[in-house]
């Protein structure tokens, strides 16, 4: 089925539960903070690591990836597109990180031991070790924050459903009593009992209005909290991705330096880059 068309399915096909399931489609930005039982993520060329993470981590029970291939490009498989998306980093980087990336290399583009990375001074090794450990701690804290936000978002979803159901009941009761009040006011009887019943009904409607207002305020507060959770989860994901990647770079850089020392090798080109960026003494 293409575009916005419709189709008809036979009743005997719909009777089987596994044949048809109700589904809702949202983009990656709209899905942030959402939690469902099952989710299907559509991966297209050009997606980034953070987008792929959000799309593939919304479900409690089952997360599936469906990859859109380019029919005109037979050289790239679905697996290639998914790997590219996971590897693509679209975050904003600081000047410090770019300098270190230039001097130390990327996780997937580091100099090999045979290319002889420069041997670091003792102070450089200490500085990189401290930075690597800081990034690892930041990644662990960010991972814990992501889990905390996800759990709270799940609880909020349940609370919002319950509160919304209660609000619907209150609104229905209020509408019914308002209709009853109008009928009583327009009736032929206006004795003491009728006036008393009218006053009581009016008081009941005012109470319903007050309860509806309080519940509406609670729902708005929960929605605001959920939006805040989505923002916190996005920030934590960015921190986790950045810290994990950079810790990997530094860890590999220190390992290469250790192996280079053992072989007594040293690369003048990389040494000059290190000195140029002020990372050597």
TrEMBL record:
Organism for this UniProt entry: Candidatus Neomicrothrix parvicella RN1
Residue ranges, annotated region (Disordered): 181-202, 257-281
Lineage, highest ranks first: Bacteria, Bacillati, Actinomycetota, Acidimicrobiia, Acidimicrobiales
Source domain of life: Bacteria
Compositionally biased spans, kind Polar residues: 191-202, 272-281
Biased composition (Basic and acidic residues): 257-269
Name listed for the protein in its UniProt record: Uncharacterized protein
